TrEMBL record:
Domain of life: Bacteria
Organism expressing this protein natively: Microcystis aeruginosa (strain PCC 7806)
Name of the molecule in the record: Similarity
Amino acid sequence: MRLAWLRCYPFLHEPLSTSILSLAAVREVHLTPAINSIVVCYDPQGITEKAFQENFCQLLQQLTPAHGLRCCEADNW
């Protein structure tokens, strides 16, 4: 998935990875800030896809900076 603010907020990379790894059934997290990309590998045997999506979206809502999108929209790369 792509996070428009990932490259703009490098100090959030570690908390983001750690928080995602704490979600149920998550095995790996790979951040690629250069292309604002995040890959999450999880065990589908341990959680339903719907439950994972809900948990993941809640986490992203909590961690997304209030002005994260504005930073990137202003071409602050």
